[in-house]
UniProtKB/TrEMBL annotation:
<dbReference type="InterPro" id="IPR013797">
    <property type="entry name" value="Maltooligo_trehalose_synth_4"/>
</dbReference>
<protein>
    <submittedName>
        <fullName>Maltooligosyl trehalose synthase</fullName>
    </submittedName>
</protein>
<feature type="domain" description="Glycosyl hydrolase family 13 catalytic">
    <location>
        <begin position="10"/>
        <end position="383"/>
    </location>
</feature>
<dbReference type="InterPro" id="IPR012767">
    <property type="entry name" value="Trehalose_TreY"/>
</dbReference>
<dbReference type="Pfam" id="PF00128">
    <property type="entry name" value="Alpha-amylase"/>
</dbReference>
<dbReference type="InterPro" id="IPR017853">
    <property type="entry name" value="GH"/>
</dbReference>
<dbReference type="GO" id="GO:0047470">
    <property type="term" value="F:(1,4)-alpha-D-glucan 1-alpha-D-glucosylmutase activity"/>
</dbReference>
<dbReference type="GO" id="GO:0005992">
    <property type="term" value="P:trehalose biosynthetic process"/>
</dbReference>
<dbReference type="GO" id="GO:0030980">
    <property type="term" value="P:alpha-glucan catabolic process"/>
</dbReference>
<dbReference type="InterPro" id="IPR006047">
    <property type="entry name" value="GH13_cat_dom"/>
</dbReference>
Length: 756
């Protein structure tokens, strides 16, 4: 059941099923069509996100358990709202081994466990390696406690009949081997989620495993409690298409969207029986509208002058090679061992080179064959010395596109691309951080209006039920931070001069992080030293240039940690930053309102991430999981419902007005939100407006507001409207095509035929 729009909430022990249920009256008034929840199955104790599932057969007790889940579902149903649940088919958490009953049983009984096939373990290589030891020689710290082997806070089961002797002797007889944590990347013999050894991959391609892991959620769907499902990380699955077909068979009427990251120009596999993606493609298209292409050269020169590499493809290539050579070594070795007739070293090189060369996350052979062919061709060109090995790899994969070799290299290529590009390159190539977003391409400096309209029309024609988004729990920065940063492309000279001055006073001794830090300070201002410190610590480690999560440069980390206090404590510099923010703040608000209205009214099903109905200047997780002040939002909404038209100011109430009007109209008059036609403005400022018609509805949004103001405003520019009388649903006033009048109060308008 496709909702009119969704509202994403992050459930956690501090925000439970009952807390979500208490927000239903507010969400109904806001205009939402469905509550969209983060994972609700039982997760690692204390988890703040829920993606570390430990038991998929029950609702999470820390959220209130089954009774509270049922109550939430009933209250949503009574309010006429749908319930969309995030599911995690790719992996389960094994960090606390005893908390996961299936994993515990596998460790106790080994290949003889009833759940041995549930996890993607390479039993051919012997015992399960558990990289938990501080040092391989640290087994002296082992002790036996009843039928458990204990290493500090870690507990592991002792197999029946093997508990006699010293802890070391007992350890040697188990179905698992405790090893040093550094051995995980190179020797691990179970598939994991990216490089996270505490998240073990699950084999949902097997029907019995699928039903065991999905039975409870599909029961909720069958009983009408859940109306939609969001599928996390499908690219890690052995057979994403087959999985989607099993899921659709179990939930024939549900709205299904998948977290498939599409690169520019890439399409969702047409054989998947789903409604679309979770919307990162729409985020990229919409954000690009507000980036001025004239800002590219000055911002590139700023990055170059500060010592940052500006060849994007070179930076990305190095980052991906770091992943194959140091982080996912175990995965490369496991895949290479399947290549017949090739020496191990050559096979490993061929596998790594091919995954580095992928133009998209993965192929889905036979679908996506062109992407596979492109990766093979690029690998051959980069490593002619490995031609024979690459040819052998290519032949075997094409010979059996559903075999183990083809399966493993396809499900691992996405890990290389995501880890190498999103989680590394995006923190190294920081020329213009507004573009460094999931599904984005920082090398493409914005998007044309023509390209946006073409993609919006294509979505309406092919995937009208796809989700669209501007902020998620995984975005590197919130929509309002990006909207403000987009203004920098309109004032690149001013920003470059400011950054050079600021760097001379308090620069960070690593060019990429230095430039990212100043953009972050401007984009998220005002920000506390604590939030900025946490963000920069994560950014420094993700870039893997001067320090990492595992190999620390403590002196550098101390310098980074001290930077926020140094900058914010420098009164003169802080005043300069504040003055610059004042220069871009109002254009940033304009961009925020414009991109939000476009997202809420364009083809697709829009999602509003928790709290972003007001200005929200959050950074990457966990910053974006901070508590939301719903009392404030409810109070402002009550004033808006009473007829208040708030000013565009720091309160963010103007954004709440736009969200409320668009969502309510979308829910109550769905017939207006069909079809798609581009509208053209005429006049000297025509390039500063984006407009389109649905069916009896017209969206109008301002773009590049600094250039508009510097050019003298609208200056008689008009938007010829389709026949009929038109009223702005945001302000309730009748309008003509004169943009100076239509957009006098707000930089956006939502027009409907007749009286509002």
């Amino acid at each position: 059941m496709r909702p009119s729009a969704t509202y994403r909430v992050q459930l956690r022990p501090e925000f439970t099923f009952a807390d979500a249920a208490d927000r239903i009256p507010y969400l109904r008034r806001l205009g939402v069509g469905a509550l969209y929840a983060s994972p609700v199955l039982d997760a690692t104790p204390g988890s703040t996100h829920g993606y570390d599932v430990i038991d998929p057969t029950r609702a999470r007790p820390e959220l209130g358990g089954e009774d509270a889940r049922r109550d939430l579902a009933k209250r949503l149903r009574d309010a006429g709202l749908g319930f969309v649940v995030d599911i995690v088919p790719n992996h389960m958490a094994v960090e606390v081994a005893k908390a996961n009953p299936w994993w515990w049983d596998v460790l106790r009984h080994g290949p003889g466990s009833a759940h041995a096939d549930y996890f993607d373990v390479d039993w051919r290589r012997g015992r399960v390696l558990l990289p938990v030891l501080g040092d391989d020689a640290d087994v002296a710290e082992l002790r036996v406690d009843g039928d458990e082997l204990v290493y500090y806070e870690h507990r592991f089961p002792i197999a029946p009949g093997t508990g006699e002797g010293s802890p070391q002797e007992v350890h040697a007889r188990q179905h698992y081997e405790l090893v040093g944590w550094r051995r995980g990347n190179a020797e691990l013999n179970y598939r994991r989620f990216f490089d996270i050894t505490t998240l073990a991959a699950v084999r949902v391609e097997l029907p019995d495993v699928f039903h065991a892991t999905h039975g409870e959620v599909l029961r909720w769907v069958a009983e009408g409690d859940v109306t939609g499902l969001r599928v996390d990380h499908p690219d890690g699955l052995a057979d994403p298409g087959g999985y989607m077909r099993m899921l659709r068979a179990g939930a024939p009427e549900a709205w299904l969207v998948v977290e498939k990251i599409l690169h520019p120009g890439e399409d969702l596999p047409q054989s998947w029986p789903v409604d679309g993606t979770t919307g990162y493609d729409a985020l990229r298209e919409i954000t690009g509208l507000f980036v001025d292409p004239d800002g590219e050269a000055p911002l590139t020169e700023l990055a170059r002058s500060l010592g940052q590499p500006v060849d994007y493809h070179e930076v990305e290539d190095r980052a991906r090679r770091l992943v194959t050579d140091r982080i996912l070594v175990a995965e490369v070795h496991r895949i290479a061992a399947l290549v017949r007739g090739v020496e191990p070293e050559a096979a490993q090189g061929a596998v790594a080179e091919t995954m580095v060369a992928f133009p998209v996350y993965r192929s889905y052979l036979p679908e996506g064959e062109a992407n596979w062919a492109a990766a093979i061709a690029a690998a051959r060109a980069a490593r002619p010395d490995l031609t024979e090995a690459i040819d052998a790899l290519d032949f075997q994969v094409r010979e059996d596109p559903h075999g183990e070799l083809a399966t493993r290299i396809q499900q691992t290529s996405g890990m290389v691309v995501a880890k190498g590009t999103e989680d590394t390159t995006f923190y190294r190539y920081t020329r213009f951080a507004a573009l460094n977003e999931v599904g984005g391409s920082p090398n493409d400096f914005g998007a044309s209006v023509d390209a946006f309209h073409a993609m919006a029309a294509a979505r309406e024609a092919g995937w009208p039920g796809a989700m669209t988004t501007l902020t998620t729990h995984d975005t590197k920065r919130s929509e309002d931070v990006r909207a403000r940063l987009a203004v920098l492309s309109e004032v690149p000279g001013e920003f470059a001069a400011a950054v050079r001055r600021w760097t001379a006073r308090h620069g960070i001794d690593e060019p990429s992080l230095n430039l990212l830090a100043w953009q972050t300070l401007v984009g998220a201002w005002p920000i506390t030293p604590e939030r900025l410190r946490d963000y920069l610590d994560k950014a420094a480690k993700e870039s893997k240039l001067r320090t990492t999560w595992t190999d620390h440069d403590e002196e550098f980390e101390r310098a980074v940690a001290a930077w926020p206090d140094e900058v914010l404590g420098d009164a003169d510099l802080a005043a300069e930053v504040e003055a610059f923010v004042a220069r871009v703040r109002e254009p940033g608000w304009s961009n925020s309102l414009a991109q939000k209205l476009i997202q809420l009214t364009a083809p697709g099903v829009p999602d509003v991430y928790q709290g972003t109905e007001l200005w929200d200047f959050s950074l990457v997780d966990p910053d974006n999981r901070r508590p939301v002040d719903y009392a404030l939002r409810a109070a402002l909404l009550e004033e808006i419902e009473g007829g208040w038209l708030p000013p565009v100011d720091s309160s963010g109430a103007a954004k709440l007005l736009v969200v409320h009007r668009a969502l309510t109209l979308r829910r109550d008059s769905p017939e207006l939100f069909t079809g798609y036609r581009r509208l053209h403005a005429e006049g000297p400022a025509a390039a500063h407006v984006v407009a389109f018609e649905r069916t009896g509805l017209v969206t109008v949004a301002t773009r590049l507001p600094v250039g508009l103001a510097e050019g003298g405003g609208w200056r008689g520019t008009v938007l010829p409207l389709p026949a009929g009388e038109w009223t702005d649903a945001i302000t309730g006033t009748a309008v003509t095509g004169e943009l100076s009048e239509m957009l006098a109060r707000y930089p956006v308008a939502l027009l409907v035929r007749g009286e509002s």
